[in-house]
Inverse folding.
């Protein structure tokens, strides 16, 4: 999730009930190993609060992916992930992301290159159940034969993007294939999970070893609370969290990132309470953290905010 799971947001989430494993945002291996290094290396910034953490890389060139994997190993990440599921048209035109589903020869070369560069780091692959159509059996069989440490499989084909419902029956089918071919591989399901309750159900019903949550965090920043009873959080908690986030965003990134990136988080925090619509509209017009803070503090004069 580019410009979402960056250092700042992971740091905010690390102060809440946090996931068992963090993944960095989508990081281009070619940019990381070329003149784009300076503009790209910030995607791999992490803190000890965020461990265990996996570096998520993508690309087409085995040579660039090898070099990126070496860098990830030198930076002492806990694991490395190759994204072979991104459905973005620009990424696909480059022959990367979910385009790997249609190019087994290159995919094998890429996996071998990353293994060589990452040395003994655990290797995972994030992908989908197909490109134009569901080919779960054929595609996952091929991947399990590569002896990867973990497979993260999203229950949609690439052409669906994020539309329709994730096909968890096919995720469960991938589990059965894994158990036959490579039982030691960890299989993580992905798609439409919005709570620990739903994650627990997918483990029970389909046998996945775990689930990955992406967009679900936009519905609830506390989505990683490991309880079957969903806890309701108050307006004050959301505003406090947004204040912490916007302050840290400015502290870490300053003017190096467009402040508009924060707008997606404003939509996440300011909702579902009295006056949220107007407050959100006001905040969406801001241009920096000072303006956000001024509006929040003015709208919350009765709150004690740190």
């Amino acid at each position: 999730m580019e410009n979402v799971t960056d250092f700042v947001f992971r740091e905010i989430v690390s102060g809440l009930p946090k996931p068992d494993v963090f993944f960095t945002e989508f990081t281009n291996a070619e940019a990381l190993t070329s003149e784009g290094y300076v503009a790209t290396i910030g995607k791999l910034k992490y803190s000890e609060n965020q461990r265990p953490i996996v570096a998520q890389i993508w690309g087409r060139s085995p040579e660039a992916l090898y070099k990126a994997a070496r860098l990830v190993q030198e930076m002492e990440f806990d694991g490395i992930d190759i994204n072979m599921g991104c459905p973005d048209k620009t990424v696909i035109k480059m022959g990367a992301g979910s385009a790997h589903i249609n190019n087994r020869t290159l995919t094998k070369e890429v996996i071998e290159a990353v293994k060589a560069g990452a040395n003994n780091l655990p290797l995972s692959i994030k992908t989908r159940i197909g490109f134009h159509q569901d080919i779960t059996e054929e595609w996952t069989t091929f991947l399990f034969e590569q002896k990867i440490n973990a497979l993260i499989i999203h229950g949609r084909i690439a052409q669906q993007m994020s539309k329709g419902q994730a096909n968890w029956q096919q995720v469960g089918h991938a589990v059965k294939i894994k158990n036959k071919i490579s039982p030691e591989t960890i299989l993580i399901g992905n798609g439409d999970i919005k709570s620990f309750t739903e994650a627990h159900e997918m483990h029970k019903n389909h046998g996945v070893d775990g689930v990955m949550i992406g967009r679900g965090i936009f519905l609830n920043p506390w989505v990683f609370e490991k309880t079957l009873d969903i806890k309701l959080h108050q307006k004050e908690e959301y505003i406090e969290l947004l204040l912490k986030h916007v302050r840290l965003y400015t502290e870490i990134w300053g003017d190096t990132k467009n402040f508009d990136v924060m707008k997606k988080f404003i939509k996440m925090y300011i909702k579902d309470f009295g006056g949220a619509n107007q407050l959100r509209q006001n905040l969406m017009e801001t241009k920096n953290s000072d303006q956000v803070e001024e509006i929040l503090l003015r709208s919350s004069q009765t709150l004690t905010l740190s």
Observations:
- The chain has two domains: 7-218, 235-299.
